[in-house]
């Protein structure tokens, strides 16, 4: 199993491994190129740059630069996903966003988790835990989603919230940590 395989399999992986570093460098270059595009003015160029950075993103997704990520290829954006400016995806564990979901500006989706033991934390190792966000969700500005969290369908996450635990379908959550404020059914 390569370090990149481990990265997306919830297994401790080495961030100094050559294949990890090559993936990270590719994303740094591709995101710099993408961040120079204007998807509202030149959609064709922006989509091409987005697909170079995130090959698993639907061409119908709209990501407004600037956008930041670690690798790009573990990000899966379904049709009609909207990502507003200044979002940051630490994507080593994989990020999956369902159709018609919208993220406000400044959202952070964070999949890496560092070891609890401080001696092990000194090593260049971490574990990635996937984030799954369902269909028809709305995450307000500056929302943070922590490693391994699944957010159901038709969920609203209030601006500034920190989502630390799974969220069921059809609810609104808010706060730090985010808690259910009301049902949307």
Order of helices and strands: HEHHEEEEEEEEEHEEEEEEEEE
- The count of β-strands is 19
- The whole-angstrom Rg is 16 Å
Q: What structural class do the secondary elements suggest?
A: alpha/beta
Give the termini distance in whole angstroms: 44 Å
Strand order of the largest sheet: 2-5-8-13-16-18-19
Which residues form runs of ≥5 with pLDDT under 50? none
Task: Indicate the mean pLDDT.
Answer: 97
Helix residue percentage: 10-25%
Shape: globular
* Major sheet details: 7 strands, mixed
If helices are DSSP runs of H or I spanning 4 or more residues, what is the number of helices?
A: 4
Descriptive key words:
185 residues, five-stranded parallel beta sheet
Structure description:
Helix 2 (18-34) packs antiparallel against helix 3 (43-53). The protein starts with a helix and ends with a strand. The strands form four sheets. It has a seven-stranded mixed beta sheet, with no helix packed on it. A five-stranded parallel beta sheet has the order 3-6-9-14-17. The relative contact order is 0.12. A hairpin with a 2-residue loop joins strand 18 (171-175) and strand 19. With 185 residues, it is of the alpha/beta class. It is globular, with a radius of gyration of 16 Å. It has helices at residues 3-7, 18-34, 43-53, 118-121; strands at 13-14, 62-63, 67-69, 75-77, 82-83, 87-90, 95-97, 102-103, 108-110, 112-113, 125-128, 131-133, 138-139, 144-145, 150-151, 156-157, 162-163, 171-175, 178-183.
